[in-house]
Amino acid sequence: MTDVLIVGEGLAACVTMHVLNNRNLTFKCIGHPNQSSCSRVAAGLWNPIVFKRMTESWMAHVLIPEMKRFYADAEKRMGTRFLYEMPIVRALPNQEAQKSWNIKSVNALAEWIQAADGLPDDAWKFTSAFPCRGYVNQTGYLDVNAFINATLKFYAACYQNEIFKYPQLTIHAHSIEYAGLKSKYIIFCEGYRVSENPFFNWIPLKPVKGELITLESETLTFTNAILNSNGFLIPQTNGEYTLGATYTWDFNDEAPSLEGYQALKEKAESMVKTPFKLKAPRGGIRPASSDRRPIIGRHPVYEPLLVCNGLGAKGVMLAPFILKQLFEHITQSLWLDDAVAIKRFYKKYSG
């Protein structure tokens, strides 16, 4: 009997594999790449600041150190690099915003942000000439595709590439069986497709479609910062840039759209002042929750059934900490934060 059966092959499922390995727990994983492309197209950006309100992102002081430790350990284990730390250069609309930024850089947000004075900004000369700007530290991006590919290769003996068939699942009091496999627990990491899961289709998600595109420019050569104004521009290791992102609540599928392309083109034109080309548009559906917090924990009736969902656009930051906490809760009965525990939605379960 294995300890955990994982359903999914995106970011959450892959983080789960490493968390279980770190705890010496055995596992199998069933996933299929055609089920959802969200993790595969994600920019992987992490950022401790909520720019709209100029406040610290929820639990950033806890999530970011844990995230860095987790991915650094995974890089070392698999011999592959996928975590890239670099500051965000944030465009500010006017001198008043610049003044407010500078004040917060020595007060409330001193751990995370800096004033622009005296800091290098070679990248800025290639982009729209915003006279006001600030810097965010302890930011960067995870090459999510590289992380997923490396993880599935590293744990290939534990992975089955197939679509999970719910009718084949047999649930016992303290274990499950699926297609001849016995396991103490099963965890569903299915993103927005959890709506098709007969055991967890009641959890309240508000999926949001996001689209990204690749930007090429022979004269845009910066590699040392992420630029942010009405979108983000992330330098990639191959000399190209990831430009994003859109947020669409009314959509039919994951495919890139004409409207999304136009929105991204407008972002590029407002940010970049050198000639550029756009290529490889892609889309995915973010599994955001109704209260913008992750949803993790046990099924209200079937004890061996677990879920991890609702990571939204902050999955890179959230997944290592919350999945570690989940399995500490499951195996050691340690406390599970009420803000992320699925029990806050138990009343929505109708049996």
Describe this structure in words.
With 351 residues, the chain is an alpha+beta fold. The protein has two domains: 2-41 and 145-203 and 291-348, FAD/NAD(P)-binding domain (3-Layer(bba) Sandwich); 87-138 and 208-286, D-Amino Acid Oxidase, Chain A, domain 2 (2-Layer Sandwich), CATH 3.30.9. It is built from seven helices and 21 strands. Strands 1, 2, 11, 12, 13, 14, 20 and 21 form an eight-stranded mixed β-sheet that branches. The relative contact order is 0.18. The mean pLDDT is 93.
Features:
7 helices, single chain, alpha+beta, D-Amino Acid Oxidase, Chain A, domain 2, 25% helix, globular, FAD/NAD(P)-binding domain, eight-stranded mixed sheet, 351 residues, 2 domains, 21 strands
Number of strands: 21
* CATH class category label of the largest domain: Alpha Beta
- CA radius of gyration: 21 Å
Q: Quick one: CATH superfamily of the largest domain?
A: FAD/NAD(P)-binding domain
CATH topology of the largest domain: FAD/NAD(P)-binding domain
- Strand proportion: 25-35%
Order of helices and strands: EHEHEEEHEEHEEEHEEEEEEEEHEEEH
- Let me know the average pLDDT: 93
Low-confidence blocks of residues: none
Query: Could you give a short account of the major beta sheet?
Result: 8 strands, mixed
Q: Level of helix content?
A: 25-40%
N- to C-terminal distance: 28 Å
Class based on secondary structure composition and strand pairing: alpha+beta
**Number of discrete helical segments:** 7
So, CATH architecture of the largest domain? 3-Layer(bba) Sandwich
Dominant shape: globular
Number of domains: 2
